[in-house]
Amino acid sequence: MSVRVDVALLSGRSETIEVEAGSSIDALAQKAQALLGVGRSRVANSAGQVLPGTETVQQAGLQTGDVVTLHTQQVEVACARWKCDASAFAAIQGDASVLTWGDPDNGGDCSSIQDRLVNVQKIQASLFAFAALLGDGSVVTWGNPDCGGDSAAVQEKLKDVREIQSNTEVFAALLGNGRVVTWGNPDFDNSSAVQER
């Protein structure tokens, strides 16, 4: 069974797109991107909720005549580096997953946590590690543990995260309640002194 939905940009331009009810939201987004001539985008329903790309049109509850909005995004690339030589890169892809390349020991390989890197909103890089802020307010890290690639010690505190920042060897997360949680090298910039304040 096919469904016809109107896909609109914030500018007001729109296209009517026909997709199978079993098609993914990502497939709908790709058709809309091609017809509207835009790049990387996410689909939001009439309530403004971003629909997960892996959901089907039917699972998202879309029906013929519904209007959805296509939110375009710039591709975001983060770089972990030593001096001027980049050692690893991470990019948020159109489906809000992450693509990495470069030195596997310094964040260039995220295969061990790839399945957790969904609905990625932002990536920050330290010297040799990465942290990704997900749409549900959680954080996923990978790369060199000495530079923040291992957040296991604070993972339970990394909920309702609103912002992440980094420096050379430390990450900091601002929570919805105003607290800050840090992880990484405890000897660098005395990060343990601001832990959860």
TrEMBL record:
PROSITE patterns on file: UBIQUITIN_2
Sequence ranges assigned to domain Ubiquitin-like in this UniProt record: 3-74
Classification via SUPFAM superfamilies: RCC1/BLIP-II
InterPro entries assigned to the protein according to its UniProt record, in alphabetical order: RCC1/BLIP-II (IPR009091), Ubiquitin-like_dom (IPR000626)
Protein name per its UniProtKB record: Ubiquitin-like domain-containing protein
Species: Symbiodinium necroappetens
